[in-house]
Amino acid sequence: MNSLIASPAIASPRTVTPFATHIDHPMPRALREHAATKTFDEFVDEYASTAGPVRLGQWSCDDEKRPARRIGPQARTYQATLALGNSIETSRAAATGPVAALTAMLYERGIAVEMTAFHQLPAGEYTATFIRGCDGTRTEWAMGWSADPTQSALRAVIACANRLLASA
Question: For residue range 26-61, what is the model confidence (pLDDT) as tens digits?
Fold first, then answer.
């Protein structure tokens, strides 16, 4: 008689190694201890959770191909689908970059996220963006993780908005 023995689950390196080992450069000082003691999954669950009332859907720059008319940063028009709780709306903002546009869109919807620190670091084939945001009363650190640096930054802003709302 053969009996089947379940093989133990194989843990990925991300579930057992400290988060800090996945980043190619020193972390922001305020996060170093957590990054050294929490596993990848624990750190992501705390600082980059996708759960929360604020969610980002579609994102685009409407005039990305438009040629620059002068030297220096050019205002561009960005569009996003934002969900706040059960409400889903399309927002637009003109700004010199995607992070400024997203924070403006959130502010128009009543969610203040003023960035007081921004760190974007390589993490192998990924980019980790760490931001500290303030809503005028509280500050929170958050992280975004993506192969695309812009998506990493946008995810960090959304994570920060959700952390600020959760600590309210």
Answer: 999 999 999 999 999 999 999 998 889 999 999 999
Name residue 24's amino acid: D
127/122 Cα distance (integer angstroms): 5
Dist CA 8 CA 2 (whole Å): 18
CATH number for 57: 3.30.160.270
Q: In this structure, are residues 42 and 144 in contact, taking their beta carbons and an 8 Å threshold?
A: no
- DSSP, collapsed to helix, strand or coil, labels residue 104 as helix
For 61-82, write each residue's pLDDT tens digit: 987 666 666 656 778 999 999 9
Question: 114 near 107, Cβ under 8 Å?
Answer: no
